[in-house]
Design a protein that fits this description.
It is a single chain. The protein has about 425 residues and is α/β, with parallel strands linked by helices. About 45% of the residues lie in helices and about 15% in strands. Helix 1 packs across helix 3 (about 40-55), helix 1 (about 5-20) crosses helix 5 and helix 4 packs across helix 5 (about 75-90). The radius of gyration is 23 Å and the shape is globular. The mean pLDDT is about 95.
Length: about 425
């Protein structure tokens, strides 16, 4: 077997499963494939798989320049991966082509076609590196859902969605941030961007439980919300735990809930590392007992997750679009249930890692039009620097996948609703 062939064959299996069967990198069968490799191969596998999905639209555009016929899905996935390696990762052409040809043989794909196509592409790879994607190249479902974006917002998205995410971390308190042993670009008194990426398990303060990883966009709304120590707080979709840890770091009275048992296991592991303890429930929030009342309910609702596309590039890679009908109904029902569980003067913090109108502003507008005992509550910005002010519009936070302090942040939405009577 040619060196690198096995790992590349497994990359093909993974990409095909995601594209064809709507799997994710966290699916159990895909995790099993990944874990069968050594550390170096896993790093290679993740790099190629994620890059192939990030540059899927670019590679598809390149294929159209060289292929006039309709090709099968397995041919398409094999070529996408190979083009990514040759053009965008700058791997050695002959190694990529030879492995791709051998994989084609195993898949009963005409290997002569794969060989000729990739050789033609490799000859012009320097020009192909500069291929551009415009908004019309994006998936039809996304274009249909993002008609409210301005031309400038479309340009921001196009310039940012393929970039690798930055690592943002949040500390339990200011003292632990000051003792951090690595370089950091501070985003607040308790958070910052990691400058030099390292294996987290090699960092003593991470092992000790001084901090956790949380995207800036996810961290920022709760950081700017004043919460009384006596407040009863419910995090309805708590796993993996970032927002819950923010509450616990303030000594909050917190109950955690998550519908997924597997995600609760991740949550428990994170709580153990941080040495936090609190009550954990495993219910469908929309079926909660309405006798219990809370002062703050956090709803990080299921959504299209399009704001996290840099971390989850499979969103555009999958052949299947998100099920917006179901997602929007779930979001609506979660808000409705929260309205019955919140005390007078209590707050509902509604968040989604999306910037699409039907999951964000429309959900809030629809809620306020039917729930006349609620009003939009203002976030109180602790830090009024210009870069942060741009995230807020009409008392809500909404951002595209873009940059803050020259570091990449997720697309995100947050609105706070106060029960006034």
């Amino acid at each position: 077997m040619i060196k690198g062939e096995k790992v590349r064959f497994d990359i093909h299996k993974i990409l095909y499963s995601i594209y064809k069967f709507n799997k994710t990198l966290n699916s159990l069968d895909i995790k099993e494939i990944i874990s069968s490799h050594n550390t170096n191969d896993i790093s290679f596998l993740n790099n190629v798989a994620l890059s192939s999905m990030r540059y899927y639209l670019h590679s598809s555009k390149i294929m159209k320049k060289y292929i006039n016929k309709k090709i099968k899905d397995k041919e398409k996935i094999l070529l996408i991966s190979a083009i990514t390696q040759i053009v965008f990762l700058d791997f050695k052409d002959y190694a990529v082509i030879n492995c791709s040809v051998e994989i084609a043989k195993k898949l009963n794909i005409y290997h002569g076609f794969i060989n000729a196509c990739l050789k033609n592409i490799s000859k012009e790879k320097n020009q192909l590196k500069n291929i551009k994607i415009d908004f019309n190249d994006l998936p039809l479902w996304f274009k249909n859902q993002s008609t409210s974006l301005t031309n400038n917002e479309k340009d921001i998205f196009l310039n940012n969605f393929t970039k690798k995410p930055s690592l943002h971390i949040v500390f339990k308190n200011e003292i632990k941030l000051h003792k951090f042993e690595n370089d950091l670009i501070k985003t607040s008194e308790v958070s910052g961007f990691f400058i030099n990426k390292k294996n987290l398990n090699d960092i003593e303060s991470f092992i000790r439980g001084d901090w956790w990883v949380q995207d800036f966009s996810s961290f920022f709304p709760l950081y700017n919300l004043k919460i009384k120590n006596s407040a009863r707080v419910l995090d309805t979709c708590a796993a993996p735990g970032g927002k819950s840890f923010q509450i616990l770091s303030r000594n909050g009275n917190l109950t955690l809930n998550d519908k997924s048992l597997s995600r609760i296991q991740i949550l428990k592991s994170n709580l153990n590392r941080l040495n936090y303890k609190t009550k954990i429930l495993n219910y469908d929030f929309t079926k909660f007992n309405e006798e219990e009342k809370y002062d703050l309910i956090i709803i990080d609702a299921p959504c299209s997750a399009v704001g996290t596309i840099r971390k989850n590039p499979e969103i555009f890679f999958k052949a299947k679009a998100p099920n917006f009908k179901d997602l929007i109904l779930i979001q609506k029902n979660m808000l409705k249930k929260a309205s019955k569980l919140i005390n007078i003067n209590g707050l509902i913090l509604y968040m989604v890692c999306s910037f699409l109108k039907n999951e964000t502003t429309e959900q809030i507008e629809n809620f306020l039009s039917t729930q006349t005992n609620f009003e939009l509550y203002n976030f109180n910005l602790i830090d009024n620097r210009k870069e942060y002010l741009k995230l807020f519009h009409n008392n809500i936070m909404i951002t595209l996948p873009e940059t803050i302090l020259n570091y990449n942040i997720d697309g995100y939405f947050a609105a706070c609703l106060k029960r006034i009577k």
